[in-house]
Amino acid sequence: MSLRRTLSGGLVNVGIALTALRTNLMRSILTALGVMIGVLAVILATAVGSGAQVSVENTIAQLGSNMALVFPQPDTENGGPSRDTGKLTERDARAIERSVPGVTAIAPQLRASIQLSIPARRISTGGIGVTDGYGTVTNTDVELGRMVTSADVQAAARVIVLGPTVATKLFGDLDPVGQSIRVDKVPFRVVGVLAAKGSSLGTDNDDVALVPISTARQRFATDLKGPDDLAMLFVGFDPAVALEDAKADLVRLLRDRYSVGRGDVQPFTVRTTEEFQEQSATVTGVFQAVLVAIASISLLVGGIGIMNIMLVSVTERTREIGLRMALGARRRDIRNQFLVEAAVLCTIGGMLGLILAVVAARIFERAAEFPAPVGLPVAVGSILFSALIGLAFGGYPAVRASRLSPIEALRSE
Amino acid sequence: MATDPPLLETRGLEKEYSLGGETVRAVAGVSLSVRRGEFVAIMGASGSGKSTFMNMIGALDLPTRGQLLLDGTDLASLSSDALAAIRNRKIGFVFQQFNLLARTSAVDNVATPLIYAGLPAAERRARAAAKLGAMGLGDRMDHTPAKLSGGQQQRVAIARALVTEPLMLLADEPTGALDTATSEEIMKLFGQLNDDGITVVLVTHEPDIAQYAARRILFRDGRVVEDQPVNDRRRAA
């Protein structure tokens, strides 16, 4: 059989299918609806899943590209649980800056929840005590004014740099630079406003305020015990440095400083941006797989609906099948006719599902401020996949139709 | 004519069914031949085996025993695809209930067998339109069956039977659903088609209708009990 004949036969079958589907319009619509909902669910699940991936990647990218995070929590990943509390100090930070090769800048931090007030308003936000290295390591810059400088740190100056969300909440459209503001009731001067970073995974990255780390140590209520304990330390590395090696150097230095023996749990944890990326890729991958798996169940139900309706269609049209056989249709002609009918039905459902999914994803993005991209491969794939579902679930009814005996079929009413 | 090989030849043709554990011999040894250009009426009561016989010569069913040669080919030895091709190219069926596809235009109904002959769409339509024109339905091409009278529907069905230029028209009670006047009209049409050279095999239980044929074969209990020319044959005016 020539290709041309196959193609022309396929087109004829599409025509026959559309006539048959129009004949039972309500039934066809309801059946297509099943597939539509299935495709909608799968596309949305994929979109939300990849949105999560994008969001996490953005978050990590905003941390800074080639960076290690050190925090004073016992690292139980490779050892057993530990009763020791964590350890990390400013002296550790200076030692790291001095001795670990490839370090470009360090950003030791204190963190606390703080109250900001002006006469008219009072809000709370995440306060971070930083040094002048913070901007470099975390790719953070100011939109207005200036960052925290080393002079600010040395003087324990009562200056504050506001995140854009905080600035808007307190001052609206006014320029906050130079304004006075109370931090936990102590007056501070606003010296800058950070450039917006947006939100990721539902967390607003702009809802922060930076003060010099020395000032934070004096004023913030933290649960740190030692006089130079740190809540967190970011270590920026030269882009040419292999993070894995850099991390090994860093860990070795800290283990020496705290005399951690072989097999002992270390009182600090080191993670690189690379590790976060890998970890989050795994987590979001699993997240996406679970979402899609759940959504696929509705597609499966849609497919069963197709099979059900095709079996009804074959039974109702037994006489037509007999007639077509009498007119010269071979078994495969009958089989293909019903396969195409199921595929057309599913493809229509799939296209409707795709359109609806694109609209729903846009609405979701607006409402939840969470990316839900529907890519071209997903769009094309979902249409092809719905046709495939038609072929898979229409297969049994179609083969059953083709196995009918011509006389039995002709005789049926 | 005597040297011409027959279009249809059966030798000891038998068909058995098992019905509830019992074997029923619907056709119990039929040997006959039909030459090209004949107009044969097969008669018999219900259960005489005439329908089973017709199904076999129409390549819709296979015999249990015996030989069945159509245009020199033994149908008993053919695959289901080959039988489909025989039904498509060599036989044109006309049914009692017309069996037109609902919600499908007259011209598309007539063109349906050409789909299975593998013809391109334009040629299918052209040939179907020509046949409908020959049946006097040139102005009804895009009408669906619901908009046509019984006689018109049967003429669409005859156009469909003829569209692949078959060797034989096989009509099963073609006037069973029509009134007397329309029945006459359809039978005269068969007569004209036969005059133009096509072989017509007609299955009927009405003696009046059988009068249009040139030869009458009577079935009883699965056997041919009478096979003779029609004496006072009715012809197209």
Could you say how many structural domains of chain A there are in total?
2
CATH architecture of chain B: 3-Layer(aba) Sandwich
Task: Report the biggest beta sheet of chain B as strand number plus sense, adding barrel if it closes.
Answer: 6 strands, mixed
Q: Give a count of the beta strands of chain A, DSSP E runs of length 2 or more.
A: 12
Annotation keywords:
A: 413 residues, 2 domains, six-stranded mixed beta barrel, B: 237 residues, alpha/beta, Rossmann fold, 7 helices, 10 strands, 32% helix, cell membrane (chain A), ABC3_permease_C (chain A), MacB_PCD (chain A)
Describe this structure in words.
- Chain A: GO terms for molecular function: transmembrane transporter activity.
- Chain A: Residues 293-406 form the ABC3 transporter permease C-terminal domain.
- Chain A: It is found in: Cell membrane.
- The complex is a heterodimer of chains A (413) and B (237).
- Chain A is of the alpha+beta class and 413 residues long.
- Chain A contains 13 helices and twelve strands.
- Chain A folds into two domains: 3-59 and 279-411, no CATH class; 73-267, no CATH class.
- Helix content of chain A is 57%, strand content 17%.
- The longest helix of chain A is centred in the C-terminal third of the chain and has 44 residues, at 273-316.
- The longest helix of chain B has 16 residues, at 180-195.
- Chain B has one domain: 3-Layer(aba) Sandwich (Rossmann fold), CATH 3.40.50.300.
- Chain B is globular.
- Chain B starts with 7 loop residues before the first strand and ends in an 8-residue tail after the last strand.
